[in-house]
Amino acid sequence: MTTTTPTKPTATAASTLDLTEVSRWYGNVVAVNNVNMNLGPGVTGLLGPNGAGKTTLLHMMAGFLTPSKGQVTLDGQPTWRNPAVYRRLGLVSEREAVHSFLTAYEFVLATAKLHRLSDPRAAARRAIDLVELSAAQDRQIGTYSKGMRQRTRVAAALVHDPQVLLLDEPFNGMDPRQRLHMMELLHSLGDAGRTILFSSHILEEVEQVSGTVQVMVAGRLAASGDFRTIRRLMTNRPHVFAIRSTDDRALAVALIAETSVSGVELGRDGLTVRAGDYGAFTRMLPKVALARGVRVQQLVPEDESLESVFSYLVEA
Amino acid sequence: MSTVSWITVRGLFGRRRFLLLLPLPVLLVGLAVLSRGLGVDPTDWGPPVLVGLGLAVVLPVVALIVGTGVLGAEIDDGTVVHVLTTPLPRWQIVLPKLAVAAGVTAVSVAVPLFAAGLLADSVRLGVALAVAATIGALAYTALFVAASLLTRRPVLLGLVYVLIWEGLLSNVVSGTRVLSIQHYVIALADRLAPTNLLGTTVSVSVAMAMTTLVIVATTLLSIDRLRSFSVAGETS
Question: B97 to chain A: which residues are within 8 Å by CB?
Fold first, then answer.
């Protein structure tokens, strides 16, 4: 344990999780197909619809499934049949099974002891503090709500202060306040240099927690990187911008003359502009507005949401 | 007590299936007390109660309940992942669980068998049955812990072994007795307290060698299977 403060994760040496040409099949069903991935410090969202292969991929990363082909390594060490990796890796699986006959403190303390930590009691208290479960730590887990059980599992996964944390659908069953707290926690862990990967099929969750995504579709890694960048690279579909200015009509006339603009709609709340090239449009807009003496008051990319990116990728 | 043992004990006694351990030992002692009280000749009630019920039913069934409970139940409900996501070498998970399973089974079976042996013949027979049952408890639980890691239906596999292999085949086909823990236990008990109540069919040397082999081989198999433990094949 290197942590000294009770509620904030501290920075440690970074770890890297690498997947090289990883595939996993069950009989004739290919669950994961030739995935290459490199995960470093920060928070990454693993996004995809149900059945996309996210859980299978997470299980292989966590050493609970052997790849049919390829290799999964943590800092160069294979995760399969290698319990030593759990010194640096924590897992919160999707199944909410917890030893319901134990209290949260007993459960997290037992986990700390299994990790052979030098001060398991302090580590257990710190982890329980991190997930804000101190007030209920002496109640049996069987009496907890779904969200509290989830936080208990997160506390157990964090008790040894791992460099890498994998979470499968971590926001399931959490109320909005718990969800917000969990998002803050993941942010702070990522900021402290931890490698955090969480899966979700809910786009807003990923969008709020992470700018970096790995998008799985039908077992394949469909896209990887910053989701706004991914969207911008998809030049075959127009980018949609909402613009408000001091003279929307004059700006509309000017914009429609530009080759990078494929359509302009004038509405009560301003303009809706479709542009083929994100970069060309955003460079051109201020010049055109300045030339016409129009002041742009608001420019919002309307279809940069993760949902938009995701639906484009699924349709592709 | 190690943390793994502590969690295993809490899990075992925290589940309702623990209550299944009580009726059979009580029935065993009850029948022995009743037979003795009614003045029935021990040569008439000894073999069916001591062997037919005690060694052929109570010992393997209790071992099956406990042996599949210490690891199989955790695999079933997914809680095993919490223990497995720690850097403990897998033998440090299997051995404490096996020790708990064998210990609980031995206490649950050896005590009533001691009482039944005492009522049937002598303290020596009671001690012999208790010691042999303790060794048998270790062999059975090692087998059933391994079954928990080999199949998703360890109880069914265990019942097939106890009822079909040991209960039926080993009484009909003599060669199968060499692969029957029940017959090893009978042979060991008979060696410790020679009596005509048990009716051994396997030599002591074979029984001892095979018991050791079963315990060592199934334990090593369990450790290896736990190293390669895979979660259920979800594709979501």
Answer: none
Q: In chain B, what is the straight-line distance between the N-terminal and C-terminal CA atoms, in Å?
A: 39
Amino acid occupying residue A103: T
- Token pair of A86 as six digits: 């759990």
User: CA B201, CA B171: separation in Å to the nearest integer?
Assistant: 10
Q: Which of B77, B84, B229 sits opposite A97 (nearest CB)?
A: B77
Which conformational region is residue A179 in: left (phi greater than 0), alpha (psi within -120 to 50 degrees), or beta? Answer: alpha
**Residue-wise pLDDT tens for chain A (316 aa)?**
333 333 555 555 678 899 999 999 998 899 999 999 999 999 999 988 778 899 999 999 999 999 999 999 999 999 999 999 999 999 998 876 788 889 999 999 999 999 999 999 999 999 999 998 999 999 999 899 888 898 999 999 999 999 999 999 888 777 888 888 889 999 999 999 999 999 987 777 787 887 788 988 889 998 888 877 776 666 566 788 999 999 999 999 999 999 889 899 999 889 999 988 778 888 899 999 999 999 999 888 876 666 666 667 666 5
Instruction: Please answer yes or no on whether B82 and A84 come within 8 Å at the CB atom.
Output: no
Q: Hey, what domains does chain A have and what are their CATH numbers?
A: 17-230 (3.40.50.300), 234-315 (3.30.70.100)
Furthest C-alpha separation in chain B: 66
Helix segments in chain B, DSSP class H? 3-14, 23-37, 42-46, 59-70, 72-77, 80-84, 91-120, 123-150, 154-159, 170-172, 181-192, 204-227
For residue B136, give the nearest of B97, B118, B110, B168 by alpha carbon: B110
The whole-angstrom separation of Cα B84 and Cα B142 is 19
Residue located via tokens 């299980």: A59
> What residues does A263 pair with on adjacent strands?
A274
Amino acid occupying residue A216: M
For residue A70, what is the enclosing H or E element? strand A69-74
The tokens for A63 are: 């050493």
The verdict on a CB contact (< 8 Å) between A31 and B235 is: yes
Asked if B89 and A83 come within 8 Å (Cβ–Cβ), the reply is yes
Sheet holding A195-200, edge to edge: A89-92, A164-168, A195-200, A42-47, A212-217, A220-226
Q: What is the ipTM of this complex?
A: 0.86
Q: Model-level pTM?
A: 0.82
B231 touches chain A (CB under 8 A): yes
Nearest-CB residue to A90 (from B85, B88, B227): B85
Q: Report the gap between the CA of B90 and the closest CA in chain A (Å).
A: 8
When computed from its CA atoms, the radius of gyration of chain A, rounded to whole angstroms, is 23
Report the b/e string of B24-59 with b at 16+ CB within 10 A: bbebbbebbeebeeeeeebeebbbebbbebbbbbbb
Note whether B84 contacts A: Cβ–Cβ < 8 A: yes
Give the CA dihedral A258, A259, A265, A267, nearest 10 degrees: -30
Q: Rg of the Cα trace of chain B? A: 18
